[in-house]
Automatic annotation (TrEMBL):
Residues 128-228 bind DNA. PANTHER family: KDP OPERON TRANSCRIPTIONAL REGULATORY PROTEIN KDPE, REGULATOR OF RPOS. The modification 4-aspartylphosphate is found at D55. Keywords: DNA-binding, Phosphoprotein, Transcription, Transcription regulation, Two-component regulatory system. This is Response regulator. It comes from Paenibacillus aestuarii. InterPro entries: CheY-like_superfamily (IPR011006), OmpR/PhoB-type_DNA-bd (IPR001867), Sig_transdc_resp-reg_receiver (IPR001789), WalR-like (IPR039420), WH-like_DNA-bd_sf (IPR036388). Residues 6-119 form the Response regulatory domain. CDD domains: REC_OmpR_KdpE-like, trans_reg_C. Pfam families: Response_reg (PF00072), Trans_reg_C (PF00486). Residues 128-228 form the OmpR/PhoB-type domain.
């Protein structure tokens, strides 16, 4: 899926587009470009890319508007580039449907890794009932979790939280998204302390050293990321 995947770059800076094009072509990706949000939405509809790299700081039609427009008809993976390091901008992009974000200036190695994660994630069979991460196995059909061959006893809430994070392995899941998917509509943003408590419970049951987690990483002020890849 990753080799030869079509990537649409939507960025108004020619030097950024050139850097991305040269680097990503060297990784065997097929590259398409757009310099404006309007052209980006149009290209997305005719090129049918496998993934979009989207700059949030576009003139006229903003990156957030592009994200909203594309999400009206497609669930294609979108990685946003932002020069803004504000948590609110990252949260807004993720809640608006972005799959991941990279803050400018960024390392190309990091971006390529994020792209591969997003492409692997979308390539996985949706109906796959078992998620395997080395020595951690999550059986979605039986709601069972095993670590090193031993059953891990989780409460229903702990299991649902782990399921959401593991199903989005490699991606940032915001606090708001977790609250909605695990606790449903009956929650407030102020309930984020519940998340910290339950994440702490999961780490105690899964991690060798809960203070240095290898499974669930905290994205401060934003949410959490499940680190392992299936």
């Amino acid at each position: 899926m990753t080799n030869g995947a079509r990537i649409l770059i939507i960025d108004d800076e020619p030097q950024i587009r050139k850097l991305l094009k040269v680097t990503l072509q060297a990784h065997s990706f097929e590259i398409h470009e757009a310099a404006t949000g309007e052209d980006g939405v149009y290209q997305a509809s005719i090129v049918h890319p496998d993934l979009i790299v989207l700059d949030l700081g576009l003139p006229s039609m903003s990156g957030m508007d592009v994200l909203t427009r594309v999400r009206e008809w497609s669930q294609i993976p979108i990685i946003v580039l932002t020069a803004k390091d504000r948590e609110e901008d990252k949260i807004a992009a993720l809640d608006g449907g972005a799959d991941d974000y990279v803050t400018k200036p960024f390392g190309m190695g990091e971006l390529v890794a994020r792209i591969r994660v997003a492409l692997r994630h979308v390539a996985k069979t949706v109906d796959e009932p078992i998620l395997r991460f080395d020595h951690l196995v999550i059986d979605l059909a039986q709601r069972l979790v095993e670590l090193d061959g031993n059953r891990v006893k989780l409460t229903p809430t702990e299991y649902d939280l782990l399921k959401v994070l593991a199903s989005n392995a490699g991606k940032v899941v915001t606090q708001r998204q977790l609250l909605q998917q695990v606790w449903g509509g009956h929650h407030h943003e102020s309930d984020s302390h519940y998340l910290r408590i339950y994440i702490g419970h999961l780490r105690k049951k899964l991690e060798e050293d809960p203070t240095r987690p290898k499974f669930i990483e905290t994205e401060p002020g934003i949410g959490y990321r499940f680190l392992l890849q299936p």
